[in-house]
Amino acid sequence: MAKVTLEDGYVPSDDEPFMNDRQREYFRRKLLSWKSDILREAQDTLVALQSENENHPDLADRASSETDRAIELRARDRQRKLTGKIDAALARLEDGSYGYCEETGEPISLRRLDARPIATLSLEAQERHERREKVYRDD
């Protein structure tokens, strides 16, 4: 793939061809930056958890500390799953399927991709999916 340079402040626009080289590079950088932030936060959490090996004599303090640790670990687990979705989006960028709805094959709006770069469904398809999920969940 040829090296694409993006000027500062570049934002994909509907005025240009969908998923052109500049748009793909923009989203690739956005995804890699997001993944890097998540991995850095995970490392910071690991360091903090290792250094916070306090033995709280007060039961309430100990319970509060354990609750905080459990919440932090749950958040990190969600972010670990998110890195898998980021990797999948990067793979779609490579194979040319990024930005297209998995259900309809239609382009996903640039605004949606900018807000949720791991999106695999168009807004309409996502809404249909959520409505079906709600119907089955209410049974």
UniProtKB/TrEMBL annotation:
Q: Work out whether the entry's keyword set contains Cytoplasm.
A: yes
What Gene3D superfamilies does this protein map onto?
DksA, coiled-coil domain
GO annotation terms (biological process): regulation of gene expression
**Alphabetized InterPro entries for the sequence:** DksA_N, DksA_RNA_pol-bd, DnaK_N, Znf_DskA_TraR, Znf_DskA_TraR_CS
Zinc finger residue ranges, dksA C4-type: 101-125
Q: Which PANTHER family does the record associate with it?
A: RNA POLYMERASE-BINDING TRANSCRIPTION FACTOR DKSA (PTHR33823:SF2), RNA POLYMERASE-BINDING TRANSCRIPTION FACTOR DKSA-RELATED (PTHR33823)
Q: Which HAMAP family match?
A: DksA
Oligomeric state and partners?
Answer: Interacts directly with the RNA polymerase.
Which family does the entry's similarity section mention? Answer: Belongs to the DksA family.
What name does UniProt use for this protein?
A: RNA polymerase-binding transcription factor DksA
Species name: Methylobacterium brachiatum
